[in-house]
Amino acid sequence: xxxxxxxxxxxxxxxxxxxxxxxxxxxxxxxxxxxxxxxxxxxxxxxxxxxxxxxxxxxxxxxxxxxxxxxxxxxxxxxxxxxxxxxxxxxxxxxxxxxxxxxxxxxxxxxxxxxxxxxxxxxxxxxxxxxxxxxxxxxxxxxxxxxxxxxxxxxxxxxxxxxxxxxxxxxxxxxxxxxxxxxxxxxxxxxxxxxxxxxxxxxxxxxxxxxxxxxxxxxxxxxxxxxxxxxxxxxxxxxxxxxxxxxxxxxxxxxxxxxxxxxxxxxxxxxxxxxxxxxxxxxxxxxxxxxxxxxxxxxxxxxxxxxxxxxxxxxxxxxxx
Length: 321
Prior knowledge:
This protein is mainly alpha-helical. It has one domain. The chain is globular, with a radius of gyration of 19 Å. The chain starts with a helix and ends with a helix.
């Protein structure tokens, strides 16, 4: 029964991440009418698998073996970790808040580590947590810097518009490449949220976990991603193909850097900060997010990791024999 629950919850967790992950990847193309949902799902699924297989090991190792040195070695504890992260993911969905699954997963692992009294605080305090603060700021300031280079159009950047942005074919290619790029980045980092705990508990090998669980992101995008793609597509259509491609380039690059260094990181934070930077540069009166929406998002992002850790700690007490 325990193993069946682990399988079911892991599948649901991975599929939900895929359902939410397709929106920042392909919403610009979909909103612009350049791609249909079926093709977006297929391309997203393929690139996530490639990202996971090529660069997904580092983050999986961090979650599975480094936060708790040597791993948790107990199926019941892996169940507690994944169930805790899934519960917090469900809460975020109910509140209609973009999910920070990496933070919730790490916090759930920390909860299990506190229960076991076996936790590497050094990697948390010197590597993971500082990155959660620094990288969103980097996303904001880098996007603002780059966007100022192309907005507003003037005699210094008109050649960029003439060569790229005023050519619909080239703009479409740029948008496709940026969508594929960020999908690949998601595979390198976020698949580890479900693979890491299972690998740390010795329930599945690293390569098998990445190979068998990464396709669930594409399947989840097919089942759950239609609504998020529709909603985000309409919103990003207002953002524009040029701006959304820049957001994808910046956030995908930062996420790839985090993956190389084995840092679990939520794309949604990078995405939000990058979009906020573009709005700031534009000084638009009509913003994507009003002040209350932004505060609500950051409140939930601050509270759900704590909740994930507490739930994980409690579940470890209840399930560990």
